[in-house]
Design a protein that fits this description.
- The chain has about 325 residues and is an alpha/beta fold.
- It has eleven helices and 13 strands.
- Helix 3 runs parallel beside helix 4.
- It binds NADP nicotinamide-adenine-dinucleotide phosphate (NAP).
- NADP nicotinamide-adenine-dinucleotide phosphate (NAP) binds next to helix 1 and helix 3.
Length: about 325
Amino acid sequence: MKIDTLGIFGGAGFVGTHIANSTAALGIRVQIFTRSRDRARHLWPLPHTELIEISPYNESSISEKISECDAIINLIGILNEKRDNGAEFRHVHTGLTKMLLKACTDASVKRYIHMSALNAEPFSTSYYLRTKGEAEVASMAAHDAGLPTTIFRPSVIFGPHDSFFNRFATLLRICPVLPLACAATKFQPVFVGNVSEAILNALTDRKTFGMRYDLGGPEVTSLLEVARYTSNLIKSSALIVPLGPAMSKLQANIFEYFPGKPFSRDNLRSASLDSVCRENNGLSQLGIQSTAINEVVPTYLGGKFERMRYYNFRSEARRK
Ligand SMILES: NC(=O)c1ccc[n+]([C@@H]2O[C@H](COP(=O)([O-])OP(=O)(O)OC[C@H]3O[C@@H](n4cnc5c(N)ncnc54)[C@H](OP(=O)(O)O)[C@@H]3O)[C@@H](O)[C@H]2O)c1
């Protein structure tokens, strides 16, 4: 199978940006579909890469734009919704996926890759995981109907500009005390470079058609260990206080109403489950050597912290 033009939905986000950088180096023509070309301006300079605005997303706007694509990668996802009723999650994860699958089938797209998440399943108590699960079911139905599909289900993903280690670093810098919900939950953080490699290799690899791959890194670690690791790395003196189930619930109920929802009720529901590869790790199934946290995270957290210190020095110098 030859892929001349690759379309990426949700391609301007954290994972998509990494994939787009890798594909630009490979020389494949890439079309990144986004709701706002302006917000995706960090991708403007990439060679062979076109940013295509679609707003709003609907069946006809998608069909019209994907006509040149041989393959589609769907990275669209949200972690929070305005209300805690599942409606926004259902629209973004299930609804948009179904629209995209129909458009792919109508346009005879040769290949579809779907990004889900570990623990996604249609009967989950978490709206995030439930709607991710529904999108998996729809994707596999499209596969059975003739659209070669592969699903990836990563644990939390790390790398420069992630929302995991970077978020902990920010919180540890600004809060003297960090109350930590779901501190004992286990994660298997996976490097964005490995996720991107798995997806790009799978594009033309027939043995991945119709498969679902769980993706995890080489270490299983608790949230508390992640917070402590980050704290050591940035030399924070903040006190990390692990919360039990009742206090975690209280924190979610309060933060649900904070602007930007730093932690929501649905986050609590999904973060109460360990996010680790249960049976097989897709990276080893696909022959990809997984990258350890300590090989990568110090390169970006360290750098950010150093830059922050210089920023502080400059601010202080101006004050004197
Ligand atoms: N990062 C992780 O740790 C992690 C772990 C497991 C699974 N995943 C999954 O991997 C995928 C990529 O994650 P990421 O970290 O790269 O996320 P991200 O940086 O937040 O990017 C998500 C993308 O989704 C698109 N999007 C969001 N709401 C949308 C809406 N209402 N309509 C259309 N598009 C919308 C955005 O596209 P535009 O703003 O450009 O339109 C954005 O670029 C997601 O499906 C996520 O659930 C991520």
